[in-house]
Amino acid sequence: MYYREIKIQTQCHGKTPKDAASVRATHPIPAACGIYYFEVKIVSKGRDGYMGIGLSAQGVNMNRLPGWDKHSYGYHGDDGHSFCSSGTGQPYGPTFTTGDVIGCCVNLINNTCFYTKNGHSLGMEKLGLQTPGEVVDANFGQHPFVFDIEDYMREWRTKIQAQIDRFPIGDREGEWQTMIQKMVSSYLVHHGYCATAEAFARSTDQTVLEELASIKNRQRIQKLVLAGRMGEAIETTQQLYPSLLERNPNLLFALKVRQFIEMVNGTDSEVRCLGGHSPKSQDSYPVSPRSFSSPSMSPSHGMNIHNLATGKGSSTHFSGFESSCSNGVISNKAHQSYCHSKHTTTSLNVPELNNINVSRSQQVNSYTSNDVDMETDHYSNGVAETSSNGFLNGSSKHDHEMEECDTEMEVDSSQLRRQLCGGSQAAIERMIHFGRELQAMSEQLRRECGKNTANKKMLKDAFSLLAYSDPWSSPVGNQLDPIQREPVCSVLNSAILETHNLPKQPPLALAMGQASQCLGLMARSGIGSCAFATVEDYLH
Amino acid sequence: MACVLEAPLRMSVLSEVTASSRHYVDRLFDLDPQKVLQGVIDMKNAVIGNNKQKANLIVLGAVPRLLYLLQQETSSTELRTECAVVLGSLAMGTENNVKSLLDCHIIPALLQGLLSPDLKFIEACLRCLRTIFISPVTPEDLLYTDATVISHLMALLSRSRYTQEYICQIFSHCCKLQHWHSCGFKSLPQPLLCANGPDHQTILFNHGAVQNIAHLLVSTSYKVRMQALKCFSVLAFENPQVSMTLVNVSVDGELLPQIFVKMLQRDKPIEMQLTSAKCLTSMCRAGAIRTDDSCIVLKTLPCLVRMCSKERLLEERVEGAETLAYLIETDVELQRIASITDHLIVMLADYFKYPSSVSAITDIKRLDHDLKHAHELRQAAFKLYASLGANDEDIRKKIIETENMMDRIVNGLSESSIKVRLAAVRCLHSLSRSVQQLRTSFQDHAVWKPLMKVLQNAPNEILVVASSTLCNLLLEFSPSKEPILESGAIELLCSLTQSENLALRVNGIWALMNMAFQAEQKIKSDILRGLSTEQLFQLLSDSDVNVLMKTLGLLRNLLSTRPHIDHIMSTHGKQIMQAVTLILEGEHNIEVKEQTLCILANIADGTTAKELIMTNDDILQKIKYYMSHSNAKLQLAAMFCISNLIWNEEEGSQERQDKLRDMGIVDILHKLSQSSDPNLCDKAKTALQQYLA
């Protein structure tokens, strides 16, 4: 948000400057807005013409003109002087009077401010404060500004972007390029695009850290998960990585819950053979709310590769990508784009970074003091520790995303009338039986590892599907969406990589998450330039 | 010193290099065309970025051979193209390289090449032409020697983005005016300092440059957009015809002014902002855009002020200030807005701080750079101050209150650079229009001293402004008047009245007129003596009405207060009466005749001088004639003469009254006393009363 237009009727009954009455905006200027501007039209200068426009911190005496007291700045109409927390002003600009439109612009990037008169900038002043103040004496109209503030912001956006573009990178020749290539390569390997990874490594003269066979194994498992064939996926994992799931009972539980969901869906191999379907002939991942560009690759990641390789890709693609790798990134980003595109909220909100499971409705406008954690925590929550709680975060995240995708899904369900477990009685029985096993496993887990509310909720949600005659259109039906396979897939992939002592997150995703976190941190620290940079700007 | 030591070493290196260079040249003469081609290509690779190699090849005579190959019909297109490329590379070197190329008549050869059907070859030729024409050593006229060239270039504009870029660049460099804005001050004529400029503009305009180039402003290539924009900024500069056309041209449904406004948005490259601001400035000055149009007030002006800020490069600051000075020169409202925008007046003070003490210590390169721009910066600041203070008293006050401003002007007056001196004088002239400043800061800083110095042996363009300033300093309320007189101003001003330059004559006589106003008799005599009667007559028969008016004004000021009138008429009476007769008989406008009748009225106010009129029947008849003239002003002036002649209390009034009655003056007075004009009526009645008494 860059500016607001508020209509306040100012009535000053003051006789002497001592009695001056001020109006201060109720909302402070958010540091993260970068540049803040407001305008005042002097409808009547009153009897003595004592008028000031400017900035002040909360708690500054409202009975005095801005600029006279500490933590306030003002430009006064009677003498044209500017006051910086002092009773004596400096000659600044012309005087102003009835009919003039006076503006005040705060630039939180370089900590300056300037005033305007009838659309003409009167010149820069240095602001002493590090923390931004608040708007004083605002009497806004609903009209476009007289001063061309948009043009001013364009300049700063260009400046900030040039600053980023020209940021000095390692001066040793080729080092930068090699690093970029490594990042791309590791990303490809991470997600198991072995053919692409191989080709990339060949053309850039690199070595792939992981063995090709290992990549292919992971890719196989991922394909199974994304196809909804959870039983086979679990089996293959146990074959290829014998101790992995034993050491991660929570992961195994999560996989099994997903298997249960896929049974309800009719896609899991155990119920499909019972239902008489040929497991190979049916495309088990037929409809996706998103379009995928590369059929040979696993869907959700395929599009990421597409973005990176060809420089194309729409924003829909990205939301899919992020949800599968980092929640911290998403919530931050969701908020930022809100802030930028709608220009309506008062502040860049950060609490949701700490509190990952807050629902989206809460994120908006809740400028409370939730941000208690330290920065290091943000990183671990948001990016690095996805394997431990990422699954939970991911699914809760998707609950909200699904609401947005509803319309598309409805079209799908009306086309393909689905039946529980593919419609086979035997399959339903198998599913019920599996559910009991799952229940038992949950109880055993609780005994061994203690209470786990996330697991409990997960199981409850999955079982809730059976309470509806048409689970797909039920309130919990979104669990059946193939897109929900992605977080599971990602967590499993990370767990496998960890056993190989490989990073559970590709450096590329890590870097992106870090960049987003940095922007959030800048916003909280009052570094205004973050308003003119988003990670998205550099993702295509 | 290092150079001396190195010299022998260099010589030996040079001979080595020359040997290898000779090899390149020799290969151009091979009989096998394939080998020649390869030779040219190798040469191309050898000269890129290597000035020494370029110089060697030129010395060894590569240019005529390359030109020969380029023009040869039998050469393959590929070879011809490569030749053009190598020549272009050579042109990129030093100015001496360009001179050598020009000496080999490269331009006609390349222009001939443009007729080829091959686009690649055309582009190579254009690129080379471009490089040659942007060099300061190339005369612009070379583009205009053949009338068909321009129309062919216009046709080539549609061929490719490269032809567009190069041709626009050629046009904008071959249509250059000297970067000097005409003076717009009162009393200064508008000198046309560059005779070629308007011609080039008109030639290009008549060949449809505006229509052909307009759509390039929305090209996808930045370079093409930029060069097209530059082209317009040059075409429109001080050219009302082009400016008035531009304002109505539209591209893709958008008018050019709108396109220019978009180009001066703050996120656009500085070069683009500045150039489009120049276009809009020219259009505004030509009257094509109103000065209160928001695209001037809210876009162009703030943009130009930003160009003056410390963040910009020195070159940009110079251009920004000069363009802004031109934009606001004649509009007081724009001057007021500029004066409050971004602390411009204070910002300009920084222009005088180069080279800064810091730059001298830290970095030789920087010092060199600063030094090179220091003059330009100062003159640009003076020009802008001059425009800012042209009309508004408050702004002048603010300017003079800027740190060390008067000292800076005084220093500027004695700088070696003519440009700076001229700009400083203009600034002083602008500020000298303030009565208050004349009495205070001008006096405190004894500005008249350096000004008088500037007036000695200065070029005409400086003399014009300096003498104009002197006029203001000689106004009667100015405390500088006395010391200026004492320092020999009369002689100087009298010599100015003999100048070939009209503006100087006007200023000279104007200053003398101011000087004579309510002056003591000695000064008046000095003026008359200094001027000499011959010169006075010369001025009274000057073809310029301004000179004539000011000379009459001078006479009128000389002929004031009775003792002065009698004294001057006793010495110069005959000549003055002759001159007056001459003017009253001649073909002159009303103002001139009125001024002349006023002189007569002054003469009639003298004691002895009266007789010069009374004994001159010719003059009396003329006065009588003007009493019945159709113009009331002349009637009134003639009545003043009569009044002074018949005034009762003076000696011999009875005889004069009688004589005039015999001439039929009284009858006219009776008629005039019935006039509907209250002034005439009153005056006639007062005159008639003199008869009754």
Task: Produce a short descriptive summary.
With 540 residues, chain A is of the alpha+beta class.
Q: What does the model show?
A:
The complex is a heterodimer of chains A (540) and B (693). Chain A is α+β, with helices and mostly antiparallel strands. Chain A has helices spanning 149-165, 175-190, 194-204, 212-226, 230-240, 244-247, 249-265, 269-274, 299-310, 315-325, 327-342, 351-354, 360-363, 375-384, 386-415, 425-449, 453-464, 485-499, 507-524; strands at 35-41, 52-56, 72-76, 81-84, 90-91, 101-107, 112-117, 120-126, 134-136. Chain A contains 19 helices and 9 strands. Chain A has a 5-stranded antiparallel β-sheet with strand order 5-4-3-2-9, with no helix packed on it. Chain A has a 4-stranded antiparallel β-sheet with strand order 1-6-7-8, with no helix packed on it. In chain A, a hairpin with a 4-residue loop joins strand 3 and strand 4. Chain A is elongated and about 90 Å long. Helix content of chain B is 72%, strand content 1%. Chain B has 693 residues and is mainly α. Chain B starts with a helix and ends with a helix. Chain B has a two-stranded antiparallel ribbon with strand order 1-2.
How much of the residues of chain A is beta strand, in percent? 5-15%
Task: State the end-to-end distance of chain A.
Answer: 24 Å
- Which term fits the overall shape of chain A? elongated
Major sheet attributes of chain A: 5 strands, antiparallel
Name the descriptors.
heterodimer, A: 540 residues, alpha+beta, five-stranded antiparallel beta sheet, four-stranded antiparallel beta sheet, 19 helices, 47% helix, elongated, disordered N terminus, B: 693 residues, mainly alpha, two-stranded antiparallel sheet, 43 helices, 2 strands
